[in-house]
Design goal:
- With about 400 residues, the protein is of the alpha/beta class.
- It is globular, with a radius of gyration of 24 Å.
- The strands form two sheets. Strands 1, 11, 12, 13, 14, 15, 16, 17 and 18 form a nine-stranded mixed beta sheet that branches.
- Helix content is about 30%, strand content about 25%.
- It is built from twelve helices and 18 strands.
- Helix 2 crosses helix 9, helix 6 packs parallel to helix 7 and helix 8 runs parallel beside helix 9.
- It folds into two domains: about 240 residues, TIM Barrel (Alpha-Beta Barrel), CATH 3.20.20; about 120 residues, Lyase, Ornithine Decarboxylase, Chain A, domain 1, CATH 2.40.37.10.
- Its EC number is 4.1.1.20.
- GO terms for molecular function: diaminopimelate decarboxylase activity; pyridoxal phosphate binding.
- It is an enzyme of class 4 (lyase).
- Its cofactor is pyridoxal 5'-phosphate.
Length: about 400
């Protein structure tokens, strides 16, 4: 997308606003598919938590992607978007047996990551196919908050507990049809991923009736020009070869599964915000925008980097700015960034705003969540309206009668 198009969207729909490029999402999907072209059965399940707008889910369905869901609400969103139940995998963590039972009744693929629920579910529903999430005890990911496959992680069943899993399967006679892992996000080193994959292959060899092996995702995307990223083509070539070899040893062709979220939508997203004030202090120049970590929390939460461009003055002389929000706490998007000269009223664009941005937005400080726009076939299409004051009050129960002034009788 070009600056001219982004400015037009900001003018038409107001700022702040999220914009998603459908063509970039499609190209990322095709790139990942092409990397594993030598695998006969490939299944890409989009991680709904990255960006859950129902129109994005419909776009994924049109591309041939399934869905990776982590809550019953995400399952219901996927079904409402038109995805078939058999194309949805449910991989929760720490939820009740009741929630898993609801998902099973809806017909989606169940993925269980702890021994207690595995035994309870297998005892009640031995005929329902279940995938098992393994913790490979591999530290991988770009931040401790998004590394989920290490020994201290709450996710998955330890590889050292395989005998316990086998005992439960034998006693309940349940049907295990898949093995799964997810080590973390922003994984750069292909060899680390391949190492974890070998652990998953070893775990898979203990189960006779598998239909698929799911390797999760976590591929690193570039956050700035020239940034390093996962070499998907190299990884696809190496893992495909090893996967095909395993299938031969296993005795039947299996489906190779992935759950890309950030890889598909991160670079497709743009967040546009208007500059409210340029504030010179004794130490820096602040550009204060009409947004905050209530709309884009990743820099404050993960320390993540989002490139910031002045689309109102792209060719202006570059100066140093600290871009901050309007939340009444430390609320910094970037410190001492070189950005084309900013004046009040300019529109700034935050790159890589497709994944874990709007989906983590809130009404903190009683601010409205922004609109969402899909750029498709040369057109800007509104896919979520900007919130209003009515939205803030929607589920609040007004009990004004409890606080009416009491009448005090005057003493005689």
């Amino acid at each position: 997308m070009e600056n001219k198009q982004l400015l037009q969207i900001a003018q038409e729909f107001g700022a702040p606003v999220y914009v998603y490029d459908a063509h970039k999402i499609e190209s990322q999907f095709n790139r990942l598919t092409a990397a594993f072209k030598s695998v006969k059965q490939l299944k890409l399940n989009y991680a709904v938590k990255a960006l859950s707008n129902i129109n994005i889910l419909r776009l994924m369905d049109s591309l041939g992607a399934g869905l990776d869901t982590v809550s019953i609400q995400e399952v219901q969103l996927g079904l409402a978007a038109g995805h078939k139940a058999e194309n949805i995998i449910f991989t929760p963590n720490g939820v009740s047996l009741e929630e898993i039972e609801i998902a099973a009744k809806l017909g989606v693929q169940i993925n269980i990551d702890n021994l207690s629920i595995l035994e309870q579910f297998g005892s009640k529903y031995p005929d329902v196919p279940v995938c098992i999430r393994i913790n490979p005890h591999v530290m991988a990911g770009g931040n401790s908050k998004i590394s989920v496959g290490h020994i201290d992680s709450k996710f998955g069943i330890s590889i050292h507990q395989i005998p316990h899993i086998l005992r439960i399967v034998e006693l309940t006679k349940m049907h295990i049809n898949g093995i799964h892992m997810h080590t973390g996000s922003d994984i750069l080193d292909v060899d680390v991923f391949l190492y974890a994959s070998e652990i998953l292959f070893e775990a898979a060899s203990h189960f006779e009736n598998l239909d698929f092996i799911d390797f999760g995702s976590g591929f690193k995307v570039p956050y700035k020009e020239g940034d390093i990223q996962t070499n998907i083509e190299e990884f696809g070539k190496k893992l495909s070869k090893r996967f095909n070899e395993f299938c031969k040893c296993y005795g039947k062709p299996l489906t190779l599964g992935f759950e890309p979220g950030k890889f598909l939508v991160s670079e497709a997203g743009h967040f546009l915000a208007k500059v409210n004030v340029v504030k010179q202090t004794t130490s820096t120049v602040f550009a204060g925008i009409d947004s905050g970590f209530n709309h884009l929390i990743r820099p404050m939460f993960y320390g993540s980097n989002h490139e910031i461009h002045n689309v109102s003055n792209p060719k202006g002389r570059e100066r140093y700015y600290s871009v901050v929000g309007y939340i009444c706490e430390t609320d910094t998007f970037g410190s001492n960034r070189r950005i084309a000269e900013i004046t009040e009223g300019d529109i700034l664009c935050f790159k890589n705003a497709g994944a874990y941005c709007f989906s983590m937005a809130s009404n903190y400080n009683s601010r409205y969540r922004p609109a969402e726009v899909l750029w498709k076939d040369g057109k800007a299409i509104l896919i979520r309206e900007r919130e209003t004051f009515d939205d803030l009050l929607r589920n609040q129960v007004d009990q004004a009668h409890l606080f009416e002034p009491q009448q005090v009788e005057a003493t005689k």
